[in-house]
């Protein structure tokens, strides 16, 4: 897996810098925010695996930041550890009622905070809540979202998104480069949904090169087209100059024979109650996968 991403939200610059240096030395990818509004924006731009959140911030307090994270579908799964000088029982209860995963008071033991961060991320991955590479909702959280939308008779759409020719790329460029492409894809899908979707839209990582989006029915086609267009153009930065110029890579096929293989694109299948009938959530994913395979065939 790639580095786990932490977002440190702390207005004391000395503490913020100290935590960034320490957790970076522990192998984490660390971003910082001095204000609550900055934290919400950075979370939307690049989904962290965990947020360490101070309560006393100069604009909106940590409680409000946590409330907005928990009431926004795309960020509701991110573990939050409150970091504060307050040690009153009522303050701890307020944070936990808002959905915080843990609570630690200043002055704190840095090793204790490290273990709490490590355990919260591990618990989230172990319970199939998030994908370890992208930090997006996975497994059980995707199933929960599907169970919610199937109860709605209309108005939603499900997008099955897969990266064409990802495995040949990973075979040629390596596992680390493959992980970079998955993280790039997760960020791109998030940006497209931010631009064209709604606050209640859901982006998940179903595993491997497969992502999903749940959005409003009337926004699905625009999201599909924008994601495909942007991916086709922006994924080129993951190839070397020669492969970009020739428009393909030389990769082994299933029999080990080296063959020209197209550059990566996205295939997207869209289903909704307006186009299909679903008896259960399994049928949503199966029918969407069928539509995605048709989309991939049209690209060839």
* Uncertain residue ranges: none
Strand order of the largest sheet: 2-1-3-4-5
Named CATH topology of the largest domain = Alpha-Beta Plaits
Helical/strand content category: alpha/beta
Which whole number gives the mean pLDDT?
Answer: 91
What's the alpha carbon Rg, rounded to whole Å?
21 Å
CATH class of the largest domain: Alpha Beta
Number of helices, counting only DSSP H or I runs of 4 residues or more: 11
- Give the strand content: 15-25%
Helix content: 40-55%
- Listing every helix as H and every strand as E from the N terminus to the C terminus, the arrangement reads EHEHEHEHEHHEHHEEHHEEEH
Q: Quickly count the domains.
A: 2
Architecture of the largest domain, CATH level 2? 2-Layer Sandwich
Shape: globular
For the terminal residues, how far apart are their CA atoms? 31 Å
| Biggest β-sheet strands, sense, barrel | 5 strands, parallel
CATH homologous superfamily assignment of the largest domain? Reverse transcriptase/Diguanylate cyclase domain
The number of strands is: 11
Key descriptive features of the protein:
11 helices; Rossmann fold; two-component regulatory system; alpha/beta; four-stranded antiparallel beta sheet; transcription cis-regulatory region binding; globular
Overall description:
- The protein is of the alpha/beta class.
- It folds into two domains: 5-126, Rossmann fold, CATH 3.40.50.2300; 139-299, Alpha-Beta Plaits, CATH 3.30.70.270.
- It has eleven helices and eleven strands.
- Helix 1 (13-25) links the parallel strand 1 (5-9) and strand 2 (29-33).
- The longest helix has 22 residues, at 175-196.
């Amino acid at each position: 897996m790639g580095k786990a991403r932490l977002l440190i939200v702390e207005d004391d610059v000395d503490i913020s810098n100290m935590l960034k240096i320490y957790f970076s030395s522990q192998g984490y990818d660390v971003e910082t925010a001095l204000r609550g509004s900055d934290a919400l924006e950075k979370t939307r731009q690049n989904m962290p695996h965990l947020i360490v959140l101070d309560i006393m911030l100069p604009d909106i307090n940590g409680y409000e930041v946590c409330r907005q994270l928990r009431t926004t579908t795309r960020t509701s799964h991110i573990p939050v550890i409150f970091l504060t000088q307050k040690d009153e029982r009522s303050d701890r209860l307020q944070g936990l009622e808002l959905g915080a995963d843990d609570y630690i008071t200043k002055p704190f033991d840095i090793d204790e905070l490290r273990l709490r961060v490590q355990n919260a991320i591990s618990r989230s991955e172990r319970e199939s809540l998030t994908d370890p590479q992208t930090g997006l909702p996975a497994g059980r959280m995707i199933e929960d979202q599907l169970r919610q939308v199937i109860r709605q008779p209309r108005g939603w759409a499900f997008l099955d998104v897969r990266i064409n020719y990802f495995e040949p790329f990973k075979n040629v460029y390596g596992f680390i480069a493959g992980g970079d492409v998955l993280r790039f894809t997760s960020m791109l899908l998030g940006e497209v949904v931010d631009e064209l979707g709604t606050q209640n839209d859901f982006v998940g990582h179903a595993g491997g090169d497969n992502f999903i989006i749940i959005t409003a029915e009337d926004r699905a086609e625009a999201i599909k087209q924008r994601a495909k267009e942007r991916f086709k153009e922006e994924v080129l930065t993951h190839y070397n100059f020669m492969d970009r110029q020739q428009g393909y890579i030389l990769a082994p096929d299933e029999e080990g024979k080296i063959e020209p293989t197209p550059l990566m694109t996205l295939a997207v299948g869209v289903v909704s109650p307006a186009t299909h009938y679903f008896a259960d959530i399994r049928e949503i994913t199966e029918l969407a996968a069928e539509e995605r395979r048709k989309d991939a065939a049209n690209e060839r």
